[in-house]
Amino acid sequence: MKIGTKGRFATTTALATIGLIAAMIWWANAEVDDAERQRRQTAEIARALNDLRLVTFEYILHRQPRARDQEREVAGRLQQLLERNPFARPEQTEVLNDLRERSTATHRMFAELLTTSAADGAAPQEETVRRFEAQLSSRLLILQQESLADAFVLADFATERIHAAQRRVVLVILAGLGLIAATTVIAAWLIHRSVLAPIGRLQEATREVAAGNWNFKLDSGAQDEIGEMSRNFDGMTQTLRESFVQIERKNQELATLNKEIEAFSYSVSHDLRGPLRSMDGFSMALLEDYGEQLDDEARDYLRRIRAASQRMGRLIDELLGLSRVTRAELSVKSVNLSAIAREIAESLEQQQPDRAVQWVIDDGMTVQADKSLMQIAMQNLLENAWKFTGKTDKPVIRVGMVEHDGKKDCFVADNGVGFDMNYADRLFGAFQRLHHESEFAGTGIGLAIVQRIFNRHDGKIWVHAKPGHGATFYFNLREPEHERHEGHLAG
After folding, report:
1. Which domains can be identified in the chain, with CATH numbers?
2. Which end of the chain is more exposed for a tag (fewer CB within 10 A), N or C?
3. How far is CA 188 from the centre of its chain?
4. Could you report the per-residue pLDDT of 353-399, keeping only the tens digit for each?
5. Cα separation of 116 and 75, whole Å?
């Protein structure tokens, strides 16, 4: 059963329980109200009987004519009360019927008493009449006393019913509380069994997997959403196990490939350099020993062979450098780019003292990076700027740092020949050149090495340029976590 279905079932059960308890309380309260109505009616009957008794006493004592009207009014009110029958029990109905009969009898006897009194006023009283009147009065009072006693009996019945109804209300409330408690316990047990326990097992599974136990299986066998989640979790761990196996296999293949690359690099750096040195050396020997015997065209061929072998040597060096950049282990620490740039600038000026280049290098440029790799990157960027300003009248090379969107970007800018930005996507590819070698010498590997270096640091490099107006290379590196945190706190 789905958790949603369980939730709807629990809600329906709770509402049904509340409705049942409400109905029971309403019924018990209706019983109390009905018993209270019976008690009020019996109290009114007792009050009317008591009024009738007082009217009878007053007439017997004072013989006033207004007693007739009073008795008629009270008797009529009593008759209306006795005509209503709110009682359901047979003994109550029997007592009510007795009250009706006595009420009729007392009304008739009171009328006879009035007739006797009227006759006494017309003739001298006789002993027989007085005796009859006394008996009639005594009988009338006895009947009224019995009626009043029956009214009290009805009141006792009503009071007893009130007490019984109140006890039922208490029992209903206790039963309702017990039902709510039982429902709560059952609901808590179901929630623990169907929700909390599976979630606990899922939490245990996450801890096991986080600890590296990828063979842990969770499947609870339930058919609800948590059961489906546990099966999906097992499927995920199974997929991860298979992925880890593939990763391990790929790592082994990569290790093998790295060994092959190292072997190839060794072969390139030793086996290929020998033939190249031989070509260059023998070409130079020919030029030195037999140059006078050769014509100009032959000497030019030999010079071309030497230049090609030397260029091949430089390409091999660049390729080996690119390989080392890719495989080198990073040692990240604070690097002063300003100092590195000044050292490279001094070296370039010493190599070509005849050139007058204006250097503008900002102070305090510090990054977190591998110093040796950043030395290589700055060397390539500054040598490019030095090379491509070789034909500029007033060359200027700037090295600085700017802030864009809260991030610091470093740059190397020059006012050299520049290039068309339509070809910028080719700039960082190996052996990709935007200028012919006859114009500007180079192997086309330098910027590819620079991009690899910044990729190793999770940074990036990009360029803005325009033909005849130079180029600006921007780059940034990933900011360490603690520096970002301190920056946020300072902000």
Report:
1. 3-199 (1.20.120.1730), 331-490 (3.30.565.10)
2. C
3. 24
4. 888 889 999 998 888 888 888 888 888 888 888 888 877 888 899 99
5. 20
